[in-house]
Amino acid sequence: MVENREKRPPPPEDFDDNPDWTEVYPDGLPKLDIIHKLKVARAKLGLSQDDAAALLRVPVGSIRNWEQRRRDPDDAAKTLITLLYEHPQEIQGWLSTAAE
Fold first, then answer.
1. What is the spatial distance between Cα 99 and Cα 40, in angstroms, rounded to a whole number?
2. Which pLDDT tens digit goes with each residue over 45-98?
3. Per residue in 13-24, pLDDT tens?
4. Which of 34, 53, 59, 91 sits between 20 and 30 A of 17, alpha carbons compared?
């Protein structure tokens, strides 16, 4: 047992160690960070990491790095991911058509 530990002051009275994780957007969708949005969008569309990389026109290594939180997507990628999350079928169709 360690005896020399510094005593920490108690948390402030307004400290919330149990935040409300049920926060939702007005449309009822849960608030997710960009990586969870990417994973949900891939699941909705049945896309592998390779498929998602081809659709978003990024290297598959970027998808892997984002999902493993090694790197953050740039702003353009975040916008595409958000659109793909919110409108998966439409955005997939538009991006697939643009590739032709």
1. 23
2. 999 999 999 999 999 999 999 999 999 999 999 999 999 999 999 999 998 887
3. 655 555 554 566
4. 34
Rounded to two decimals, what is the model's pTM?
0.68
CB burial of residue 95 (10 Å; 0-12, 13-18, 19+): middle
The amino acid occupying position 20 is D
CA nearest 82: which of 43, 28, 45, 40? 40
Q: Following DSSP, what letter does each residue of 31-99 receive, concatenated?
A: P--HHHHHHHHHHHHT--HHHHHHHHTS-HHHHHHHHTTSS---HHHHHHHHHHHHSHHHHHHHHHHHT
Mark residue 70 as left, alpha or beta (left: phi above 0; alpha: psi -120 to 50; beta: remaining): alpha
Contact in structure between 55 and 92 (CB atoms under 8 Å): yes
